[in-house]
Every structure is written in structure tokens, then in C-alpha cells.
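Long-time lurker, first post.

We've been arguing in lab meeting about whether adenosine-5'-triphosphate would sit comfortably in this protein at all. Half the group thinks yes, half thinks no, and nobody has a model to point at. So I'm putting the question to the forum: if I give you the sequence and the SMILES, can you give me back a predicted structure of the complex? Inputs are below. Any interpretation is welcome too.
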Amino acid sequence: MSLSKREREAILDDILDVTLMFPSNLVNIISSKYSISKQTVYKYINKLVEANKIEFSETKKGRVYSLKDKSFSFKLKPGNLQEDLVWVEKIKPILPSIKKNVYDICSYGFTEILNNAIDHAESTEIYVLMEYSPRTLQFIIRDNGIGIFKKIQDLLNLTDPRHAILELAKGKLTSDPTNHSGEGIFFTSRAFDKFVIFSGDLTFASQNSHDWLFEGTFSKKGTAVIMIIDINSNKNISQIFDEYTDKETQGFNKTIIPVNLIKYEGMELISRSQAKRLINRFDKFQEVVLDFKGIEVIGQAFADELFRVFKNSNPQIHMEFINENDNVKKMINHVLNSNNN
Ligand SMILES: Nc1ncnc2c1ncn2[C@@H]1O[C@H](COP(=O)(O)OP(=O)(O)OP(=O)(O)O)[C@@H](O)[C@H]1O
Ligand SMILES: [Mg+2]
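Top reply:
Settle the argument with this. Predicted structure of the protein with adenosine-5'-triphosphate, as C-alpha cells:
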């Protein structure tokens, strides 16, 4: 059976995925999945080895395959550093050839996050790592400064540093409104497939536009940001901007807020004060979408504060909700209906 060029390319591509999942059983799996001889599978594998995409080691139990990663790292002194020059002089020359849309996301995200480390961190050193495999491109930018969550906690006088993550996820948050607009992290976290910030004892992770908070993982001083994108990603940075900006004014006027960021371990969403924390700075936006993914139930006081009290006093803000389960929907309808009576 002879395969078309497209079919052969699909098999080569799949071998990369299977290498990640079944490094010691690659040949058998590909052979049975595509009904091709093991000899043919070896031909494909040899091509990928020659192209420097995968490698293998010989063990007693046979070959173990892995994707061939390349990583580059360097240190920078913030001083008069300019993030766009770092991109052009240090990253661009070592970047593999990638699609334009992926390149645009990488150059945007890298320069935004490096700019943050230069402008906001009060750091004496910045550490940069770029790593690529045939599947993904990854950037890490780490500083040894004051720490992003601590900085936001102090700025907004928050009693709990975990609230800083919620505020960051909302967007339009800046400690330096004269020179900045609070967009970098919001858009970078949505453009990359995975976006993680480690600082102090807290971690903020965003994957495919869903955000989480973890505790107790990072003890080093400063802030570390990890950005990962699939080399075949079809995301487009201007489409992401369009999603959250006003068509006429081009202003950043819409946000999507993952409600699970206020639900700390073991706590239910029941109180007015939790709702008030969620509502904080909503007035910076014209449209607020509340994402209830992962929320099992909400209490009456929480729903009432959000969907009746706040809505009535801020009719100009359009509020929507998504990913709500039946329990949550019932409670929202309950307070909306009592509003109409
Ligand atoms: N590495 C860091 N160390 C300490 N604080 C940080 C760091 N990165 C960001 N921050 C804080 O987080 C806020 C939000 O960052 P973000 O990049 O979203 O907006 P911005 O830099 O203020 O504005 P813009 O990105 O639009 O220029 C910053 O204003 C700053 O207070
Ligand atoms: Mg920024």
C-alpha cells in the first residue's frame, strides 16, 4: 500500500506524540495503528532522527525514544535593558523556524514579561531560558525582585495574597498607571497554551483560558513566569486582542473571570464579602463574563450581591455567566426573579 505525502506527514507528526507517551513502545504502536511493517516504522523514525527531532538510547529492554529538546539560557542585568532588543539580538537568532502566528505570540509574550521584570520587579538579575522540542516552545523569565503577588497585595491593600491572583486574572491591573495599562499578563496568559507564574508560596496557572491557583510550591525570591506554546498552534494574537476590545474605540473593555479563583480550598461561595471581592474593579470594564467552571454551588447571599445588588447599582456594566451547572443556574435565576417581583 503506498501512502500519500499528506498521510506520510501525518504519521511523522504522530510519531512525535507517541514518543512522548510511549517512549519504549513506539515502533509497535505506530506499526499496529497504521497497519505498516516495523521496517517501515524504522524508516520514519530514522527520518526524524536525521532531522534532529527525536533521539534514542539503547537499554537492556530495547530502544527508548525521546524528543530532542534544545535549550538556551542566559542572565541579564535590568539596568537600561530594552526588551525588544533582547528579543531581536538574543532570541531571534536561536529560534527554530516557526509559523508566523506562533512567532507573533512568542515575541509579544516574551517582550511583555521581560518588560515586567525590568519595570516592576526591582530585581538585580533576570534569568531567561528558551527551550524547544519538535512539539513545543517554552520561555522562562525569572527575576529575584519583590515578587508579583506581594507587590499587588501591597498595592491594593489586600488582606490575603491569594486575592492578588484574582485581581491579576481580571486584567487592567497596574501599579504604574502613568507608564502602563495592565494588559501584558492578561493577553500573554491567553495567547500561550500554558502560562504559569510562581512567586512566594503561590502559583497562578492558566491553560487554554482556564485559570487556577496553587499554594506552597515556590520559595525562591522574586517571580518566575513560564510560557509554553504548541509549535502547531493556530492561535492568533490579533484575534485574541479583538475578543476583549471594543471594535470602535479599540479599548480593552471586556474580561472573563474564572470564579474558581476566589474559592480557596474547602470554602464554598456563600458570602456577600466573597462576591464583593469578585466585583472589585468590575467598573473598569463594560462587559464582564463570569466563568463558573468547577463551581458546584453558590449561596443565596453571594448570588444576590452579584446578580441583584451590584447589577442594580451598575446597570451600565453588562454581566454574563458561562459554564454554570444546574445548581448555580437555579440560584442565579432565583435572585434574578426576586429582583423582578
Ligand atoms: N516580575 C514582576 N515583579 C513584580 N511585580 C510584577 C511583575 N510583573 C508584573 N508585576 C505587577 O503586576 C502588574 C500587572 O502586570 P501587567 O504586565 O499585566 O501590566 P503592566 O505591566 O502594569 O501594564 P502593561 O503590561 O500594559 O504595560 C504590574 O503593574 C506590576 O504591579
Ligand atoms: Mg506589563
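For your lab meeting: The chain has a mean pLDDT of 92. The radius of gyration is 24 Å. Whichever side wins, do check it experimentally.
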